[in-house]
Records
---
Amino acid sequence: MHSAAMQQRDAPPATGPLSDPGQQRDTKGMGFCGVVLLLMSYALIILTFPFSLCLCIKVVAEYERAVIFRLGRILEGGAKGPGLFIIVPCMDMIRKVDLRTVTFDVPPQEVLTKDSVTVAVDAVVYYRIYNPVIAVTNVEDADRSTRLLAATTLRNVLGTKNLSEILSERESISNMMQESLDDATDPWGVKVERVEVKDVRLPVQLQRAMAAEAEAAREARAKVIAAEGEQKASRALKEAADVINESPFALQLRYLQTLNTISAEKNSTIIFPLPLEILAHFMHKS
């Protein structure tokens, strides 16, 4: 049943009679005065023909529908259009409804989150009118009502979230707002297609605190990485010392390499190589 209702809402607006029994109009019961006025209007149109065509012929665009009220009642057949149709002047009143998707910005809302943090959040809402007759008869101003409801829904949804959830779960918050708005605007003939959270502005003090916390976390990670590097370097030095200790010639080659490196630099220091045999004698003696 729910899927059938969603398919009906997503279908293009029909120009036939209203499907809701509560919205049906008895357009034939105008009464004696109504019939007399209608006949007089037809007679006036005939007498002033063809000049009366300027007032009788109306045209609506492809993206519009016209809801016609005759003596306060909606004409049988629902909304008219697109294209050309004829009305009776002095008896018919026309309300044009735009069926295109409308976009509006929700003003920044001051919201107190679940963890007692005040943030300013704004959003964008996309909606369209899927039933022109209901949008005209069930609500005074569908656009204004949808805008006010979007601002209220934004505050209600964000009030149940923590600051971390607002910053990291924007997509889920947008989906919750879209479902809530869609259910609330269904009796108005409005279909909310999409809701997007644009920006979350934090207080200055909270921004500084979060920046300090992030800086401290980066410094801690840097110290951990430096300590791990020192640990790996000490292990490599220990392995190199074990290799040199196993081969006396390796120590002599390393000694000569160090002398070569020092002598390559431009300095005034004079280096006198010391035989390794003397050092080995002192090392064995110790």
---
Amino acid sequence: CWSCQLLPGQCDEAASHAILDRYVELGGNFIDTADVYGEGRSEEIIGSWLEKQQREKFAVATKVRFGKGINGVGLSRHHIMQSIDDSLRRLRTDYVDLYQIHMWDEATPIEETLSALNDLVRAGKVRYLGASNVKGWQLQKIVELSKSMGLNKWISLQAEYSLLCRGIEWELTDVCRREGIGIIPWSPLRGGLLTGKFKREADAPEGTRIEHVTKKGMVFEGVPDFKKVKKDDKTWDILDVLKKVADAHGKTPAQVAIRWLLQKDVVSSVIIGAKTLQQLEDNMGASTDWEITEETMAELDTTKSFTVPSSLLTSKVSRKGRVP
């Protein structure tokens, strides 16, 4: 992913292909990436794997908005048309199943963006459209303009959502529920914090994303600074309940955290970011042959964290922006 430029432990092509192979064996068929992850390398790795598969068996998603240069960034018609062709070339396919705006673009009229994306659907380069990292009013505007302009309905919202980051419940979940838009949470484990391996009295485990971000003093979407986490009583209350639920179900904390999302009525799928086969096996164990009871879901729901993704707090984003 894009974070390989900043964070440790990313996979090379061989390891990535091994994880994808096992993912498919376990029943996975949805693959999400973006044109800027690894400056295009993520799409290339997926593409070299995808060309050896039966393409129609997979739902492949990518994103557009970020990049370099005056015409190489944003959601203008120019950038969108260039970006889709570049993504298709790297992915070694003639269409993507889901094409998502990576974030709102204040510098481009949304009508221009909607029209350009709709043209991609008409051209057969894109099957469906979605949004990522937008606010409630922005998503509602997309919905209403698509209706009034007679354009294809957008079907998905990709947003940061986890037991420790529930800001989208203030408004976005309502928009999605009313408009029939499926939510695809990213960072479901809050950068690894919900895996159960972090202890309040100890430093962040070496080699983890959180340890790297904390040590470098970085601000990175979806990965918290552990120095701040240590002081947050509410976070540890949630982690205590998570561990209790995991022990009661004979599951890992990560599996419970992902399962909690999968049982939300507005969630269509959950994006996992495993970098080892062991992590993949654990994450995939959240989806099969068990459920969290209604009573336990209610217990997890009421142990609330009010962390809000920065994309929901920022009123305006520069042309460059930040990439989740």
---
Amino acid sequence: MLVVGASGNIGGSVARALIHAGIPVRAAGTDPAAVARALPGAQSVHLDLLDPTTFAPALQGADGLFLVRPPAIAKVGPTLNALLDAAARAQVGHVVFSSVTGADTNRVVPHHRVETHLAGSSLSWTILRPGFFAQNLADAYRTDIVRDDRIILPSGQGRAAFIDVRDIGDVAALVFADPVTHRGAGYTLTGPQALDFEQVAALLSDELGRRIRYEPTTALRYLRHVHSQGRPWVQAVVQTVLHTGLRRGQAERVDPTLERLLGRSGRTLTQYVHDNRDLWATAS
């Protein structure tokens, strides 16, 4: 199986779940040496979504493709969709695309265009639509937590059913083990409980032994804040739209699909924070 983004949170979790399941993995990235160090049980290959000449060599002989959109890529036509076209030419067995909740109807997010392109292709496919990631605490929110002991978001009192990407990896491995059963399916995946960010801050405070506060803000202020942290404007806009949507309850529903597929409850945010508490340690 060719796993795109194998050095990232989602792709790495998928690669590790596949390796654990005994499924051979070709881990793709722009730095194959770094990928090999991170995933010693996989074959590493060079794949750059901005360089179509790398597509065919990476796909050669692949039984399946796991695809995820890197946040920095907004133009999915010449990148992700072009890779899907190359996968069709290479007759890749099955594609699993990690999209986002609501992308089947939300034309604003880039994932919608990938879903549409995939559905119209000759490929066999399954779409995963996870909600808000527990790993956002170690990515989008980490700098504010470590530097200022705060979570600043335009989410009001909205709640999110945080999903641990390790569970996404387990679902992807399940699909690749039996692709016929899951062909043409779109699965909404969430964690087992919905929390607002006051609760998230309290959870972090309890685990870290210092007070973490939640600071609600406006969409415009958050957009500027995200961009000031070095994220491109397009990425900052998408991130702002997704978090503003929490005010309207877009991510609060706990969906039973993950538990039905895996036969167990998803990992809780409490468990994720406990397992990774060193990520938010301060220099002092």
